[in-house]
Amino acid sequence: MTSTVHSPQRSKRQVRWSVAKRVAGLAFVAIVVVLIWRSLSGIDWNEVWGALKSYRFVTLLPAIGLACLSFTLHASFDLLGRRYTGHHLSAWRTMLIAWLAYVFNLNVGAMIGGIGMRLRLYTRSGVSASQVAGVYTIAVVTNWTGYMILAGLMFVWQPPVLPKSWGISPWLLQVIGAGMLVSGVAYLVACATLRQRSIKVRGRRFRLPTFRFAVMQTVLSIVNWVTLGTLINLLLPLQVTVPAALTALLVGAVAGALAHIPAGIGVLESVFVVMLGHVVPESTVVAALICYRALYYLLPMVIATAVYGCMELRGARRDRPDAIGSNP
């Protein structure tokens, strides 16, 4: 009797909640569309087309293959997060969400891509917000642990010569590299030796994974960064070596992160021109970076936008009030 009396009220609450979710979803989609437009509006598409036409298919095909490998490696960070949090989603669904989040993160920034997209898609699939936070934390730690170790090794082994206006001499860069290397190794040591399996960072507790888990994080991240450096090197003339392209990428990545510019537009190009302009013509470097952005940023963004739109439409159909009413 009690359930019969309250069922109309529950039905109204379900309808209101469904409408609220649809409005929130539409608002989120609108924000994403605006950020996409802002990110892509400053690009000279004629220049992109001209740069792409200058490359032969035999050059672009292995670059596309390396781009696919990099996306697969980065999406596997969320598989580690799945293992860390124990959420129920399948591996392919987890990697799809991770790929979408990564592509949007590249193009419109971490707040919408890395955090917002994961929160939207994971929670819609029944994963709790705390689990989403754990997945995102593991993805970030994985990416930057490998970066710290790889960049530290590169800067200590062969520090690049930066412009004097940057105020960073080779020996200072070696010191910075040593500090980065120590930080990355310290994470591995902590995971291997600390008995207290959680640490407090900025008021939040982070449960340390096992040493084997941390090694998997580091290896995946380093392989991904080397893959990206090799991809860019394929688009540059033969005079540029893979270590030189990789070092420029590592410097450009941290510069772009510090600049807080979506997609690091202009920052990455400037770093590559400064660091490689004495080896090959600046116009050649810029053309290679435009081609890289077309292959690794723009084309995946077009595909990801279409996939995300289809997922939102399917989710909206499931959340319709009549659909809720048909499934008591």
Walkthrough of the structure:
It is a single chain. By secondary structure, the chain is mainly α. It has one domain. 78% of the residues lie in helices and 2% in strands. It has helices at 2-40, 45-53, 57-85, 91-108, 111-124, 129-157, 170-193, 211-235, 242-259, 267-276, 282-318, 321-325; strands at residues 198-201, 204-207. Strands 1-2 form a two-stranded antiparallel sheet. Strand 1 and strand 2 (204-207) form a beta hairpin. Helix 1 (2-40) runs antiparallel to helix 11 (282-318) and helix 3 (57-85) runs antiparallel to helix 8.
Q: How much strand content do the residues show?
A: under 5%
Total of helices: 12
Q: In which order are the strands of the major sheet placed?
A: 1-2
* Largest beta-sheet characterization: 2 strands, antiparallel
Give the rounded overall mean pLDDT: 82
Work out the radius of gyration.
23 Å
Terminal Cα span: 16 Å
Envelope shape: globular
Question: Which structural class best describes the helix and strand composition?
Answer: mainly alpha
Order of helices and strands: HHHHHHHEEHHHHH
**Low-pLDDT sequence parts:** 1-6, 323-328
How many strand segments?
2
- Helical content stands at over 70%
Overall structural domain count = 1
Helices and strands in order, then pairings?
Blueprint: H1 2-40, H2 45-53, H3 57-85, H4 91-108, H5 111-124, H6 129-157, H7 170-193, E1 198-201, E2 204-207, H8 211-235, H9 242-259, H10 267-276, H11 282-318, H12 321-325
Antiparallel strand pairs: 1-2
Helix pairs in contact: 1-11, 2-11, 3-4, 3-6, 3-8, 4-5, 4-11, 5-6, 6-7, 6-8, 6-9, 7-8, 8-9, 9-10, 10-11
